[in-house]
Amino acid sequence: MIPQEHILRAENLEAFYVLDFSGTRKVVKAVNRVHLEIYENEVFGIAGESGCGKTTLLRALFAQVEPPLRIVSGKVFYRVNKEDVDIFGLSPEKKRKLRFEYIAYIPQGSMSVFNPVKTVRVTFLDVLESHVQGKARQELLKTAQEHLEKLGLPGKVLGAYPHQLSGGMRQRIAIALATLLNPRIILADEPTTALDVVAQRAVLDLLGEVQEKLKNTLILVTHDMGIHAAITHRMAIMYAGKIVEEGKTEDIFSSPLHPYTQYLIRSLPRIGDKTPRESVPGAPPSLIDPPQGCMFHPRCPYAFDLCKVETPQLVLCGEHHKVACFLIGGVNNERNPNFR
Ligand code: SF4
Question: Is the CB of 106 under 6 A from ligand 1?
């Protein structure tokens, strides 16, 4: 059953990179009119090919918006003490306070989380000292050590430099750092990238365990559909800056509705099936000059005239299942006979 109390909501969110090449302005529409509602105590996945806007969406949800990225329109609300707080309207100090305490971000590549010339202890103490008042350093250090041990990680890593840790261990320490103050929302951006399968398993197990223990919300960005199948409750499929399908993970995998989602799922390897996998034809569109109409139409085998001029909206087409395709619940309800 899907819990209904939302903890984070994005309305009509547009986040663009505005680039200036010697006086020529280019606008990359990385997040294009995104609506999202994320619930308490769920694992929500965001999937899609590289460059579809997943990481930018996560940054916008975290309100980490620095030039050339700009929020062009829309709002993001966090549900704090039963009230919706407009995150873009907050002062830098209030935003800083919410970070780690209410929402935490695990960026791609754990090396960027830690200072390469300082021990892990320094980073943990920096976070604790900037959020916890009236405690001595020794007490804070004990808190950090206990937190690591609670997550099954050795407290002695506090004395290590980042380069002395394996990629998998560093990533798990980055997760421990993000969860140090028990935030209600954790945003994880491709947390298993560049790790071998054993380290990937350990990182995913830790994320799952943390979510179970803390009963918080995990928003997980990864292009790896296998990971979504394994740990997310609900998921969204992004294509060219837009969400094209959203629903319970089991429904997305058992009955994908958008042609793009169908390709993503058909491209997955299956045990015992040696037939060649089918990948998405063509290449993702330019986000500087995206195609008119449905962004997927140049690659879609079912595209018809309307798809080239009008943009399908994300509409409800089943319990908690939404899709943006004219073939389903859109302007044209007549299904294309070739559509599976
Ligand atoms: Fe394909 Fe048209 Fe549906 Fe877009 S709206 S996915 S082009 S059928």
Answer: no
Number of domains in the chain: 1
**Ligand 1 pocket, mutate which of 237, 307, 311, 336 (most atoms under 8 A from CB):** 307
Antiparallel, parallel or unpaired: β 234-239 and 43-47: parallel
Distance between Cα 88 and ligand 1 center (Å)? 33
Residue 271: the pLDDT is 76
H runs (alpha helix) in the chain: 54-61, 92-101, 120-131, 137-150, 167-178, 197-214, 225-231, 249-254, 259-266
Q: Relative to the CA of 301, which ligand 1 atom is closest?
A: 1
pTM of the model: 0.92
Q: Which amino acid is at 150?
A: K
The pLDDT of residue 2 is 55
d(CA 21, CA 266): 40
pLDDT of residue 1: 52
Question: What atom of ligand 1 comes closest to residue 328's alpha carbon?
Answer: 3
Range of the domain at 17: 6-117+161-323
Query: Quick one: which of 67, 89, 66 has its CA closest to 77?
Result: 89
In a domain, 156, yes or no: no
| Assigned domain for 49 exists | yes
Q: 308 CA to middle of ligand 1, Å? A: 9
Is there a domain that residue 133 lies in? no
Residue 268's pLDDT is 84
In a domain, 333, yes or no: no
Using CA atoms, how far apart are residues 326 and 323, in angstroms rounded to an integer? Answer: 9
Give 10-residue mean pLDDT values along the chain (340 residues): 79 96 91 96 95 96 95 97 95 95 90 91 96 95 95 94 93 94 96 85 90 92 93 97 97 96 89 80 92 96 96 92 87 44
Chain mean position to CA 231: 13
* The pLDDT value given to residue 3: 52
Q: Whose CA is nearest to atom 5 of ligand 1?
A: 325
User: What pLDDT is stored for residue 124 in this prediction?
Assistant: 97
**Ligand 1 pocket, 312 CB below 6 A?**
yes
The CATH number that applies at residue 202 is 3.40.50.300
In the reported structure, the alpha carbon of residue 302 is separated from the centroid of ligand 1 by a whole-number distance in angstroms of 6
